[in-house]
TrEMBL record:
Cell wall biogenesis/degradation among keywords: no
Gene Ontology BP term (one): intracellular cholesterol transport
Record protein name field: Uncharacterized protein
Alphabetized UniProt keyword annotations: Coiled coil
Length: 964
């Protein structure tokens, strides 16, 4: 089109081109002066091409504007013609509005609607939606109304169209009039026959609705009266049932007459009483499955549940409420949607149409995209309330199905909500679904590497599930889930698995001995794998040590179940034992859900069974029975064999192993410990001297000392323990074995044994032992005790023994007391005399280096000091230790002996350990820096470089002190 306009322009002006060509071809005559170089106008000549280019651009822009105007005019005519043709063909007198709406949309109509919709989105701050809409409609420019292509005026926005169009349409309301019978009306005022029929029908309908309304009001008052009476009766019944120990915990309160409660009751008949009693205690430790917030007023709306199965009008009310909810909830704020949950729950319960109920359940789960803890708790309460009012089939098909859809959601909050709802619905689901679908859901969520926030409710659901499953084949699956949870990196998940999940599995295993055997075997097998792995590795891994610690705790947790399994099957349970049970105290420390023995039977029955068991097991020669043999051979013997392989490295593992065996003694009694447990640690050993070295370096020593011998409280047993400890210390010293095991053993038994002077009685004998090796080990033990114990009596006893060893003739004995003396001199605040004595002995020992204390012994002493030097008090460092250390450094430098080569690196380690401490400026300038400068001359290049950096850092600190 632009080309056509240009050609027309040239035809209209034919002389312009020729004139331009003529001017360009003609030659202008120049004067002689103009032909010189000075008379040339260079500026005019250089501007001509630029002006010519600008003129060309102006012409093209003008032609382009004319072309756009022509195109716009043609589009307007074409659009108007198309719209008139469509209107004339599409609208006729016989066409109803519905048919007109259903006609295919025309292109110009679509452009108008697109423009108005985009304008509405922008005005109402739907900016993201507007951007998305603009990207989808790529062939239209929303910034210019002319792009629509209409030659009509711009229509108003959508809101104005709605208000002036649809909102002002006449509504099809029934017309009502007051009519009197036997009245002659003028024909001009009489209504038509259709209007008369409509008025009569409306009058009849109004009378019928008024009658139904009065009937419903009367029924509502009657139901309110009945509700008050029933609530009073239920409160009285609930109070009475709380006093009854035999009440089943699985019966849901306030709904005993409902079919859901009947289903739960029938399911409970298949579960043992022990599991029912355990579930009641388990529910007290887990998050509640019932509404805990008074704001969720279910009781205020519970009368709506009476509409189910009533007249058509009452059902219609529920349907209307359901329809209103679909339009009301999207308009509510996210923080306010929690308040409407009770109404949604009641409508779901009472709605007659399954499809609508399913849609309401879907809407209920979609209320919160990222539900927080309070919103999840409210949703769990609503789901539990619904489940308590309907049968298990509706729970599975209407509520549970939405949880299944969310177990793989990419949102963490949605997966957490699904796990919590599944956990709460377990008591209301049928057994076949529990044994199939629920197990599959929990297994999938456990194995899918979920976060801790999801795994915790999953483990809680598994704990509840074990109280309801009756299919023994599923025990293996649940046991695998438990072992998987134990291997989690989250300590919270491991604690829930060990406390709740394991307890539920153990209670389930009580019903079948084969299940209990599988549970114990799986735990011991995992422990053996971990121990074998630790034995093969040169460096001990903290993760494996932690896992072993967890499994020892698990075995200790199921001791009550093992005990009940043995006690209830003892052959003397039917004998008459009058007078014995009254003197028997079977109270044990309650540490887990299984420790309360009244969980398994009543108190009197447990008293009688335990009396018969302790009397039988206390006899030196007693008959055994299968359960006792299983416990001894399949539990205790593998554990005793296993702890002999574990070296005493991690103190937490030692404490867990000791605690596990201590629980055996607490439950099974001292007779069992003497006759069954003690022989396991002395198999085929004539005396302690004949035992292997592993017995004094592994967990066998602390377990046997603390958990076995330490649990016996008779005087003869205490003397036996003292003899064993003396022999153990002597054997370790003579064989030159590692001392960590015996040190940790004495530390543990000093903290748990009722006789506090037991350790010091043993150490008094060892301090006076003729062998210097035993005295040296005694010095190391007393130094370790000095770092652990507090209190004036203990410090006085330890100081007396250390002072005695510090004056020993053997240098090896003296240097082993240095650590303990430093601890007493630095941290003894209860007795100044003890601190002064310790400082005096330290000064003597330091002054003997070099001298009576050899360089090798001095290096060993300094290495021990370097490990604990940062823990010394500042006052002790300023006034005693650093001056003595500086003097020792000067003496070693003056001696210049070849053996001093072993002392200088040890001194360097002490200075490095002290470099992180804070000293006074006088100590830094008077002792620390001079000693380090003297020492740096005798060090190798690598150590000297480190020492120089420490000197620079201390000089900087000293400068800062002086400037401030």
């Amino acid at each position: 089109m632009s080309r056509e306009l240009l050609s027309q322009r040239r035809l209209a002006c034919p002389g312009t081109t020729a004139l331009m060509q003529k001017d360009c071809s003609s030659t202008i005559a120049r004067t002689s002066s103009a032909q010189t170089l000075d008379s040339l106008d260079c500026t005019r000549i250089s501007d001509e091409p630029e002006k010519r280019y600008e003129e060309r651009i102006s012409i093209l822009e003008f032609e382009l504007r004319q072309a756009n105007a022509t195109v716009k005019t043609l589009r307007e005519h074409l659009t108007l013609a198309t719209s008139e043709a469509d209107a004339s063909q599409g609208v006729s007198s016989n066409c109803v509005p519905e048919e007109y709406v259903q006609m295919q949309i025309k292109p110009h109509e679509q452009r108008v609607l697109n423009f108005l919709v985009n304008e509405y989105l922008l005005k109402n701050d739907f900016k993201i939606t507007s951007v998305t809409f603009s990207e989808e409609v790529r062939n239209q420019d929303f910034d210019d109304w002319a792009d629509v292509g209409l030659n009509l005026a711009r229509p108003p926005d959508l809101l104005s169209i709605y208000r002036h169009g649809f909102a002002n349409l006449p509504q099809s309301k029934p017309e009502t009039r007051d009519v009197n019978l036997q009245t002659h009306l003028f024909s001009s005022h009489s209504p038509t026959s259709g209007e008369s029929t409509l008025s009569t029908d409306s009058f009849v309908l109004l009378n019928r609705l008024n009658a139904e309304n009065a009937s419903l009001l009367q029924r509502n008052q009657h139901l309110e009266e009945e509700l008050r009476v029933i609530k009073a009766e239920l409160e009285a019944t609930f109070t009475a049932q709380q006093r009854d120990d035999s009440r089943s915990p699985l019966v849901i309160e306030n709904c005993s007459s409902h079919p859901a409660a009947a289903d739960v009751g029938r399911q409970n008949e298949e579960v043992s009483k022990i599991r029912q009693s355990f579930y009641k205690r388990l529910s007290n430790t887990l998050p509640p499955c019932w509404p805990v917030s008074s704001e969720l007023g279910f009781e205020k709306l519970s009368f709506l549940t009476a509409f189910t199965g009533q007249t058509a009008a009452t059902v219609e009310v529920i349907e209307v409420i359901g329809e209103i909810l679909f339009s009301l909830i999207p308009k509510m704020s996210m923080r306010k949607r929690e308040c409407i949950l009770p109404l949604v729950a009641v409508v779901i319960i009472a709605h007659p149409k399954p499809k609508r109920r399913e849609e309401l359940c879907a809407m209920m789960f979609d209320l919160f995209k990222h539900p927080d803890a309070e919103q999840r708790q409210a949703l769990v309460a609503v789901c539990t309330y619904i489940a308590s009012k309907v049968d298990s089939t509706r729970v599975e098909t209407e509520v549970l199905v939405h949880c299944v859809q969310r177990i793989d959601s990419r949102l963490l909050e949605q997966r957490t909500m699904a796990a919590e709802v599944v956990s709460a619905l377990i008591p209301f689901i049928s057994r076949p679904i529990l044994s199939s679908l629920i197990i599959s859901i929990l297994r999938q969520m456990t194995l899918s590497n979920n976060a801790e926030k999801v795994l915790v409710p999953v483990i809680q659901a598994c704990s509840r599930l074990c109280c309801f499953i009756t299919v023994g084949e599923k025990f293996h699956v649940m046991n695998e889930l438990f072992l998987t949870a134990l291997s989690s990196t989250s300590s919270v998940v491991v604690d829930h698995a060990r406390n709740a999940f394991l307890s539920s599995l153990a209670i389930w295993a009580l019903e079948d001995f084969a299940l209990l055997e599988k549970l114990v075997a799986s735990l011991l097998c995992r422990m053996e794998c971990i121990v074998d792995f630790l034995c093969k590795k040169s460096s001990k891994s903290g993760k494996e040590q932690q896992q072993l610690n967890i499994y020892f705790d698990c075995v200790g947790s199921i001791v009550p179940v093992l005990f009940w399994n043995v006690v209830r099957s003892n052959p003397a349970k039917d004998k008459n034992l009058e007078g014995l049970e009254n003197n028997l105290n079977f109270q044990v420390p309650s540490e887990c859900l299984l420790d309360d023995l009244t969980l398994y039977t009543c108190s009197s029955e447990m008293q009688r069974l335990m009396a018969s068991f302790h009397r039988l097991i206390g006899e030196e020669w007693h008959s055994s029975w299968p359960m006792l043999d299983f416990f001894t051979c399949s539990v205790l013997t593998p554990l005793a064999r296993l702890i002999r392989k574990v070296e005493t490295g991690d103190r937490s593992v030692l404490r867990s192993a000791v605690h596990c065996f201590t629980r055996f003694g607490n439950f099974f009694g001292q007779g069992f410990v003497r006759n069954r447990l003690c022989p396991l640690f002395q198999v085929e050993q004539a005396s302690i001297a004949d035992k292997e070295d592993v017995e004094f370096t592994s967990l066998s020593l602390p377990v046997y000392t603390v958990a076995v011998l330490g649990s016996l409280i008779q005087k003869s047993d205490t003397e036996r323990l003292k003899r064993f400890l003396k022999e153990a210390i002597t054997t370790i010293a003579e064989r030159n074995l590692p001392i960590r095991c015996i040190v940790l053993t004495l530390l543990e038994i000093s903290g748990v044994h009722p006789e506090k002077q037991l350790i010091f009685d043993v150490m008094h004998a060892c301090v006076a032992h003729p062998s210097w090796r035993v005295r040296r080990l005694s010095g190391a033990i007393m130094s370790a005790l000095a770092t652990e114990h507090n209190g004036r009596d203990v410090e006085v006893t330890i100081s007396s023994l250390l002072l005695r060893l510090a004056n020993d003739s053997s240098p090896d004995v003296r240097i082993n007391t240095v650590v303990g003396l430093c601890c007493l001199a630095s941290g003894c605040e209860s007795d100044a005399q003890v601190s002064d004595y310790a400082k005096q002995e330290l000064s003597k020992i330091f002054s003997d280096v070099p001298g009576t204390i050899t360089d090798v012994c001095a290096a060993e002493m300094l290495e021990k000091i370097a490990r604990i030097a940062p823990t010394f008090a500042i006052q002790f460092l300023d006034y005693l230790f650093l001056p003595q250390l500086y003097a020792l450094t000067r003496r070693c430098l003056d001696a210049r002996d070849e053996t001093n080569a072993t002392v200088f690196p040890a001194l360097f380690d002490v200075y490095i350990a002290l470099s992180c401490c804070c000293f006074s400026p006088a100590t830094i300038s008077g002792y620390f820096l001079p000693g380090l400068r003297v020492l740096v001359r005798e060090l190798d290049a690598r150590r000297a470089k480190v020492a120089q950096s420490i000197i620079i850092e201390q000089e900087r600190k000293l400068f800062n002190f002086q400037t401030t």
